[in-house]
Design brief:
The chain is built from seven helices and 15 strands. The chain is α+β, with helices and mostly antiparallel strands and 286 residues long. The chain starts with a helix and ends with a strand. This is DUF1573 domain-containing protein.
């Protein structure tokens, strides 16, 4: 069954054949690999209070590593993690520990983000990057999260916060109903613009712009989830199937954390063959 989980992971990402081939190679490399944990890891709550945190006896555990490359705030998505953790706790009666190792570029910035997002789950602030040194994780953040069994061996790889299909896979494995599959009718969409330029604005001003998708297929358009490349973006849209011929407006709310040029992406996971749809926003906050 372990092999089935890993093979199913491949279909949870991109439809492009070359991309699938790359993912297949990555999955083969990590298949059944045992994740090694540092001998001494210090877990804290909001970067301040040290706590005792044990997960070695759990039948399953979800482990996520965040590196210091790029914008740490863009990678964390702590509110989304909190919602997913609630789903898993409800499903599994809080029996699946979530193990977070963060390798911060700036530890004070990371502490600020954890407190700002009121994230109270224990995390290890791995300043020396010991966890990665032991395991040599993939460089892509989409593949720095793992579902492990009791022996710490990988049974699925992928970030459930970034991809709703990976989230569905994790929940099915945990619930023991991996064999139950559902099919969704596919459709097609036309998009008015793949990129929006926000222009220049004061970084203290919250900006809103909208993308418009038109369902040009024969089945309802169903948006499973929308993920963003940065926590400084939020989206707003009608969460219901869009009939053929009708439009879906997706509003992007951007709140700059500092003055900078930005180039961010939004991934729309929906029932089209080329899902996810990648949209982009650019601009300059002054």
């Amino acid at each position: 069954m372990r092999y089935l989980y890993l093979l199913l992971t491949i279909s949870c990402f991109y439809s492009c054949k070359d991309r699938r081939d790359d993912i297949t190679q990555l999955v083969n490399k990590w298949e059944d690999k045992e994740i090694v944990f540092p001998a001494h890891s210090i877990f804290t709550v909001q970067g301040r209070d040290t706590v005792s945190f044990s997960f070695s006896d759990a039948n399953y555990k979800i482990v996520s590593y965040i590196d210091s490359v790029g914008c740490t705030g863009c990678k964390l998505h702590l509110p989304r993690w909190r919602r997913f953790m609630y789903e898993v706790d409800t499903l599994m009666n809080a029996s699946v520990p979530f193990v977070f190792y963060f390798h911060p570029k700036n530890i004070e910035d990371l502490r600020y983000i954890i407190r700002r997002d009121t994230f109270t789950h224990p995390v290890c602030l791995d300043v020396s990057d010991k966890f990665n040194i032991l395991n040599h994780f993939p460089s892509e953040r989409a593949f720095q999260t793992f579902l492990l069994n009791k022996k710490n061996k990988i049974i699925a790889i992928g970030n459930p916060i970034l991809n709703p299909k990976v989230k569905e896979l994790y929940l099915k494995i945990l619930a023991g109903n991996i064999s139950k599959t559902t099919t969704t009718s596919m459709t097609e969409v036309a998009i008015d613009n793949l990129k929006l330029d926000f222009g220049s604005f004061m970084h203290s001003e919250i900006q809103e712009r909208s993308f418009v998708l038109t369902n040009i297929g024969e089945a309802p358009l169903i948006v499973q989830d929308i993920t963003t490349s940065c926590g400084c973006m939020k989206t707003r849209y009608v969460k219901k199937p869009i009939p053929p011929g009708e439009k879906l407006e997706i509003t992007v709310i951007y709140e700059a954390e500092q003055a900078e040029y930005f180039n961010k992406t939004i991934a729309i996971h929906c029932n089209i063959k080329s899902s996810p749809i990648i949209l982009r926003i650019v601009g300059n906050s002054e």
